[in-house]
Amino acid sequence: MQPAALFTVAALALALSGCSSEDPGASSGGGRQTACEKDTRKDIYVAGLSKQNAGLSVKLVESTPAPPAKLTNAMTFQVLDGAGKPLDGATVSVVPFMPDHGHGSQVAPVVTPKGNGTYEVANIYLAMAGLWRITVSVQTPGGAPQEIAFQFCVDG
Predict the structure, then answer these.
(1) Most buried of 16, 51, 98, 132 (most Cβ within 10 A)?
(2) CATH architecture of 38-154
């Protein structure tokens, strides 16, 4: 094989492996931990998981599937104001992003307000295994946007 062709093949192989988060020695069987089991940055999924900042809190009411998994997910969030009251009338958006890989999802989540501060989110597409940051952005009328992020690791 010519040196230029060999270089091209090697570069292609490196590029194709660059977006994998799997530990080559990890597997879910045989007593070895998966990459996700070892990741200490992830949130442990439980229905009702809640996070807050100075002005609001966001509760992950449920996820389908539970816990979040590779491919298409749906989640229901409840947004509460600083006093703990359900926040209706906000503009809520959700952005999935892989911090280790520097990319998001190719599919835009769809947010539907359901009342009582509850927002259903469809089409949360987690294309590959690894750590995903799910950022919930909340904009109240006349207020600055606020963000709260959940991090889940999905095995592949």
Answers:
(1) 132
(2) Sandwich (2.60)
